[in-house]
């Protein structure tokens, strides 16, 4: 055993019953203030001293009391993340990205899910305040004004998607819904589709409404007439996609393609089409929205509009950090989130077209 290993073993076996920053300071031969600044990741700490502190912390398996540290420093280094529903794969992927970025910069996250319920939203906000988060990313829709006031009174920086009140300390993530959906409609038009349906999301969701408007606008840009009977209300769930596809199957004239307000809806459509004995894309082309990871694994793999969870997470974290560490004076208010079409195998030529028939014969 090396001298260093023996020293490490001895330290671990001799560690005191009560470990605190005084112990760390004594063993690292630095001041208590240096230990405190190192643990709080203050960038001005001498690199050699910080290295000694972290080595002792590692040797002692010491875990700082983050709540006590927050009381002393006034910094919790904790960001809140409120999402709509944890069961939609889009949100766990968003949470993972947000946490990865936060940990990389020495922050922790507190996650809450509202399930689109106002009472749950109130509970989420209360948790954030009780844990003294330094900022909250509202990856959901429809926060009530009194709840917003609770956070505003405490000067907690906030990040919203799509719509945000004009207040200090609030940033906005603006998703370019139109760009990706226009690419999707253009892709279908280039294949020869003119009979295109759209399955919406819940009417109360601003994002779902924006996607539906983008679809209508994109049809006009491509010179395609919108058929109101082919605009079917969905709810962003698998079951909603299945139910919406049942309605389309019951229409006298079926569309040759369907765009969906999210991927979960599109996967429900794929399932119903399979149950009906039809094939995608031979009988119906399908496009989703979000590009969740499972979209690559469906049969066939799903063509979809990608809205990067990582870009959303990165922009949300960047906005909160700017407010916290720069005082918000020069913090950017708006962050643009691009969308783009990802072409896979669920789209093809319209059934009955010359190209489609020739392709099937070959």
TrEMBL record:
Matching SMART domains: HTH_LACI
Organism domain of life: Bacteria
Gene3D superfamilies in UniProt: 3.40.50.2300, lambda repressor-like DNA-binding domains (1.10.260.40)
Residue ranges of every copy of the HTH lacI-type domain listed in the record: 21-73
InterPro entries: HTH_LacI (IPR000843), LacI/GalR-like_sensor (IPR046335), Lambda_DNA-bd_dom_sf (IPR010982), Peripla_BP_I (IPR028082)
PROSITE patterns: HTH_LACI_2
Single GO term (MF): DNA-binding transcription factor activity
Record key words, sorted: DNA-binding, Transcription, Transcription regulation
The UniProt record lists the keyword rRNA-binding: no
Listed Pfam families: LacI, Peripla_BP_3
PANTHER family reported for this sequence: HTH-TYPE TRANSCRIPTIONAL REGULATOR GALS, LACI-RELATED TRANSCRIPTIONAL REPRESSOR
Protein name: LacI family transcriptional regulator
Organism: Edaphobacter acidisoli
């Amino acid at each position: 055993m090396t001298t260093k290993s023996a020293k490490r073993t001895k330290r671990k076996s001799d560690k005191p019953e009560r470990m605190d920053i005084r112990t760390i300071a004594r063993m690292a031969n630095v001041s208590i203030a240096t230990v405190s600044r190192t643990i709080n990741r203050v960038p001005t700490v001498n690199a050699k001293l910080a290295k000694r502190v972290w080595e002792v912390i590692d040797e002692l398996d010491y875990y700082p009391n983050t709540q006590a540290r927050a009381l002393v420093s006034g910094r919790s280094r904790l960001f809140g993340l409120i999402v709509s529903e944890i069961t939609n794969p889009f949100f766990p992927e968003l949470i993972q990205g947000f946490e990865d970025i936060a940990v990389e910069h020495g922050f922790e996250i507190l996650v809450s899910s509202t399930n689109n319920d106002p009472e749950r939203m109130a509970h989420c906000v209360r948790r954030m305040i009780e844990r003294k988060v330094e900022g909250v990313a509202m990856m959901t829709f429809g926060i009530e004004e009194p709840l917003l006031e609770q956070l505003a009174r405490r000067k907690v920086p906030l990040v919203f998607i799509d719509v945000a009140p004009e207040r200090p300390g609030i940033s906005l993530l603006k998703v370019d819904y139109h760009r990706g959906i226009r690419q999707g409609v253009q892709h279908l038009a280039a294949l020869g589709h003119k009979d295109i349906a759209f399955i919406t999301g819940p009417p109360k969701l601003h994002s779902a409404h924006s996607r539906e408007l983008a679809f209508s606008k994109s049809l006009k840009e491509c010179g395609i007439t919108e058929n109101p009977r082919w605009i079917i209300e969905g709810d962003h769930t698998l079951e909603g996609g299945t139910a919406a596809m049942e309605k389309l199957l019951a229409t006298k004239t079926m569309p040759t393609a369907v765009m969906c307000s999210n991927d979960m809806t599109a996967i429900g459509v794929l399932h119903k089409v399979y149950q009906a004995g039809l094939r995608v894309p031979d009988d119906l082309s399908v496009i989703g929205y979000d590009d969740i990871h499972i979209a690559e694994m469906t049969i066939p793999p799903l063509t979809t509009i990608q809205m990067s969870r990582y870009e959303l997470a990165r922009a949300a974290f960047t906005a909160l950090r700017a407010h916290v560490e720069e005082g918000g004076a020069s913090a950017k208010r708006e962050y643009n989130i691009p969308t783009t079409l990802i072409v896979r195998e669920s789209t093809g030529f319209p059934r009955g077209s010359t190209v489609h028939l020739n392709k099937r014969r070959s």
